[in-house]
Amino acid sequence: MKIIKSEIFNKYPGIKFGVSTKIGNNSEPPFYFNLSYVVGDKPEAVKENRKMFFKELGVNERQVSFQRQTHSVNSNFVTSPSFYENSDALYTNIKNNFLAISVADCIPVFIYEPEKNVIAAIHSGWKGTLNKITTVTIKKLIDEFSINIQNVFAFIGPGISGENFEVGSDVVKLFNDDVKIKREEKYFIDLKKHNYLQLLELGVKPENTEVSGLCTFKEKDLLHSYRRDKNFSGRMLGVIGLI
Questions:
Q1: Does 107 map to a domain?
Q2: Within a domain: 1
């Protein structure tokens, strides 16, 4: 099984973190090592895959919170393991309370503030990125927990890269020039860069931020991509928790 880790988070024994991939004990096509129940995969296969993933990560699945991601800027404070409707960000300061993000192109952003012992998991697709869900969520953490922005650590996980996220003229005009790419009369948006710039604008230190270079669309043998595989795409899970 292949699990993606963060070099920044690895320095902190007080958190547990990992992002799944297509590579696991059950890697049969077309869904491979899929951890989502909503893509058409066999429920019993998903159940077994999740069991193996959480065991490898060292996490009890009963302690994990999930959400129905809707490309909103809605976030929820997790006090105990739950399922949240219409939500794209989860946060907590409670130990053994793990937060899960489903990934298959959209950008996963994970936050840790060790002084206040606060974490967040954010799902940022193009709509969430445009509406600055990362900024909205972190401002919520500042308001509710008085976190120190200078002490925030962030990992922007595997997601679709700017070179592969092609958009139409109706979408590209919504974004600032610093995240736009034009190639052969086609337009592309760099969602990872947009989220990174949001972090910097808030005051997060560049040295406290890690950006995964992995592109879900490009890494066909490693990562799920809805844009690439359409209805035959599985989903990965990114999980973070305080221990």
A1: yes
A2: no
Q: Of 157, 151, 155, whose CA–CA distance to 204 is shortest? A: 151
CATH code, domain with 228? 3.60.140.10
Whole-model pTM? 0.98
Q: Which range of residues forms the domain containing residue 11?
A: 7-242
Name the token pair of 60. Answer: 């009890």
168-to-38, 132, 209 alpha-carbon distances in Å: 27, 20, 30
For 85-115, how does the pLDDT look when each residue is reduced to its tens digit (9 = 90+)? Answer: 999 999 999 999 999 999 999 999 999 999 9
27-31, 207-211, 228-232: the lowest-pLDDT one: 27-31
Q: What is the DSSP string of 196-221?
A: HHHHHHHT--GGGEEE---BTTT-TT
Number of domains within the chain: 1
Write out pLDDT tens, residues 215-241: 999 999 999 999 999 999 999 999 999
